[in-house]
């Protein structure tokens, strides 16, 4: 299988850097092909702007979605974007590997998503009508591929528990797992989260590595998070609200998981 690791940490000797190296080796030793997009090492341009289309003429009004669609359809995207899209196409599984910074992914990785996820590739796909609202949330160009987050946090596990001060980790990761990954079609595996990183010594590091290794060994047979498919019958279309008999009386992110 082909695995793409998209990795964001500025220091190769960090915990994230060590775990990323470990993942690459573990996957390759198991016979998988691995590519790594090491965003800091690549000096990845994070900000989406008019320069992302090689056809943009200075002075034209820049419409990010329309420019993305036009550039994607006509082979006019900048080379760094097209190269990442080719890796995504190649991959059977994608791992986003990052430290939690301000309750989300580092800006450089958010910029990777914004620029690489072109109109026509990750959104704006499929028929929009009274019966369907595009190929998204369970359908789309990345359907059939798997995705998983590997995330480290400074906070304790309890800080991210259902009544923890930071909010539940599943809620904090919802915009990434349900939005960035499930929306364009990935099957999203439960995240691998390492908490309280400042307390990691050699013994704890060995435990973390073993646990991560097991998750990687089971990348192909771990059950995905059972998000509800948009066009699977649970939602009214085109309102895209849950039907009254689905999770009655419940609200919040959790209702979108079966
Ligand atoms: C801008 C910013 C925003 C942040 N926002 C949040 C937030 O919203 N929520 C939150 O919870 N935290 C937050 N943090 C903390 C952040 O999530 C952690 O600092 C990060 O996850 C630690 O990962 P690291 O790779 O940088 O670890 P490192 O600092 O590199 O390492 C952590 C520990 O692991 C040990 N270690 C590293 N490599 C090895 C190895 N090979 N063998 C044995 N031990 C090793 C180190 O000795 C160290 O003790 C933030 C930090 C920053 C800088």
Automatic annotation (TrEMBL):
Ligase is among the record's keywords: no
Annotated Flavodoxin-like fold domain residues: 1-215
Name of the top EC class for this enzyme: oxidoreductase
Keywords associated with the record: Oxidoreductase
EC number: 1.6.5.2
Highest taxon of source: Bacteria
Molecular-function GO term, any one: NAD(P)H dehydrogenase (quinone) activity
Gene3D superfamilies: 3.40.50.360
Pfam families found in the cross-reference section: Flavodoxin_2
Protein family according to the UniProt entry: Belongs to the NAD(P)H dehydrogenase (quinone) family.
PANTHER family in the cross-refs: NAD P H OXIDOREDUCTASE-RELATED, NAD(P)H DEHYDROGENASE [QUINONE] 1 ISOFORM 1
This protein's name: NAD(P)H dehydrogenase (Quinone)
Organism: Paraburkholderia caledonica
